[in-house]
Write a structure and sequence with these properties.
The chain has a single domain, classed as ABC transporter involved in vitamin B12 uptake, BtuC, CATH 1.10.3470. The protein is about 75% helix and about 0% strand.
Length: about 325
């Protein structure tokens, strides 16, 4: 519980930082005075129309990726499991690029990405199923192959796209929260996904010890795994639809939480949501400010932060296993 309080404070701290800094820095006094002023001042417009919605969206997307990464690592019983390993990101990206290539924008790109993510999930479900079961190894291999297929389609779409549209398409592929202006939807999805995941936290603890042992202790393994896969796919689809392809958050965050709190998913799941949100919000703030007024893709920042952190965690776990 103490860890969750610390992580909640971290989220609030990164939220405040995101509101303060940018191409036009805002003092705390101006932010406080603008809390009740949404449109009648420059500060109010910057705060309510730009920074606050984007910051809340970053918190929600990071939280979704953290929860999805935790669930997939349990589902596959593989510490290298990642929200994008099942091809959901590739399906969403392919559909979004097709929409961009067709001259669509806004809600059409969001809707297309959602449909692409759902299509990829159905493909992985269907192709990896044998009888009434999905073996973790077969599910992982199917996801890798489907993701490779989507990657080939993305490369093809980029190669035939008009030169004027390629920069925007590449920017979206590397992660982009600049159009995230409606945080209520991702926040609601995060709350629903996290709530459903916490409800099955005890069975997840048993599943992490092995399917045979979980079944012997009364866990219905197949329905549980199906529920986990649906929750992880939904969370990933929502994150990709809102923020594009943002790597390393779902891979690194569960490891960091387990390093401190152990493997009890009653703590790991909400901890991953809080830390994932704080990490992505910090990365997005850096993406907005490092080369201000130019913005960097947030996926570049998460990769720069995630690679050394993951290598450190991997090295620490290797030393501890000796």
């Amino acid at each position: 519980m103490c860890l969750l309080l610390v992580l909640t404070g971290t989220c609030l701290g990164t939220l405040l930082l995101a509101l303060l800094v940018g191409s036009a820095p805002l003092p705390i006094s101006e932010i406080w005075s603008a809390l009740g002023d949404e449109t009648d001042s420059v500060t109010g417009s910057i705060l309510w129309r730009l920074r606050f919605p984007r910051a809340l969206s970053a918190l929600a997307v990071g939280g979704l990726l953290g929860v999805a990464g935790t669930l997939i690592q349990v589902l596959l019983r593989n510490p290298l499991g990642d929200p994008y390993v099942l091809g959901v990101s590739g399906g969403a990206a392919s559909a979004a690029l097709l929409a961009m290539l067709g001259g669509l924008s806004g809600i059409w790109i969001t809707g297309s990405a959602t449909l692409g993510a759902l299509l990829s999930t159905v493909l992985v479900f269907s192709l990896s199923r044998r009888g009434d079961d999905w073996a973790p190894t077969r599910l992982l291999l199917t996801g890798v192959i489907v993701a490779a297929g989507w990657g080939a389609l993305i490369s093809f779409l980029l190669s035939v796209s008009p030169a004027a549209r390629i920069p925007g398409m590449l920017f979206w592929l590397m992660g982009d929260l600049s159009d995230a202006a409606t945080p209520a939807v991702p926040l609601l999805l995060l709350a629903l996904t996290l709530g459903a995941a916490v409800l099955i936290a005890r069975p997840l603890n048993l599943l992490g010890q092995g399917e045979i042992q979980a079944a012997a202790l009364g866990v219905e393994v197949l329905p549980l795994r199906t529920t986990v896969l649906l929750l992880a796919s939904t969370a990933t689809a929502a994150a990709v639809t809102i923020g594009g392809s943002i790597g390393f958050v779902g891979l690194v965050v569960p490891h960091m939480i387990r390093l401190v709190a152990g493997s009890d998913h009653r703590i790991v799941l909400p901890g991953a949501a809080l830390l994932g949100g704080a990490l992505l919000l910090l990365a997005d703030t850096l993406a907005r400010t490092l080369l201000s007024p130019q913005q960097l893709p947030v996926g570049v920042i998460t990769a720069l932060l995630g690679v050394p952190v993951f290598l450190y965690l991997l090295n620490r776990s290797t030393i501890g296993a000796r």
